[in-house]
Amino acid sequence: HFKTNSAKHDEPKQNVELNDFPSLDVLLSILQDEHASEIARTDRIDNKSIALLTLVIALITVYVPIIPFDALPNIFKSGNCHLIMVTSLFLLLGILALFLTINCVIKIVEIYKPTQYQGINFEALNSDDWLGVSPLAKYQFAVIDHFQDVILSNASINSQKALTLSQQIKKIIIIFGLLSVSSIGLLICSGF
Hints:
This protein is mainly alpha-helical. The chain has helices at residues 6-10, 24-63, 72-77, 81-112, 122-125, 128-131, 136-190. Helix 2 packs antiparallel against helix 4 (81-112), helix 2 (24-63) packs parallel to helix 7 and helix 4 runs antiparallel to helix 7 (136-190).
């Protein structure tokens, strides 16, 4: 990432003109676009987290009614050790799926909850001290540095959220498998 050399613009140089840095406008425009991209990325991550939360709720809504809870006491009263062991195994898989689901929901909610993103400090950039700076290039360097700091900070937050989101997608696949095996196994053990 581009980082201006603060020594270049902390102390005004003699006869420094905007023409000495013709690419500053282009760089500032690129940084503004990058800032807008990070804001859009935040929205996409939030939308995906809502979709994943909906998917988890749908999985629970579909699979929990399938489990034959009313037949389980009869299985354990039957005295058939092999049936009890297999049923217990399928119950443990279901309980594991439940704990993974709770963990997944907590992580997804953490992704979606408001996060303190760094914003553009318009008060600092719009002060009389900065607006009267000469040469103009010094002000542009300060704006560019500020935009870059904001973008890097927000990109780091978004990257962490995206990583957590991808981990939850994998976890949902595991939950789906565990719930499928558990509910089908319990249905077979109960004799439908």
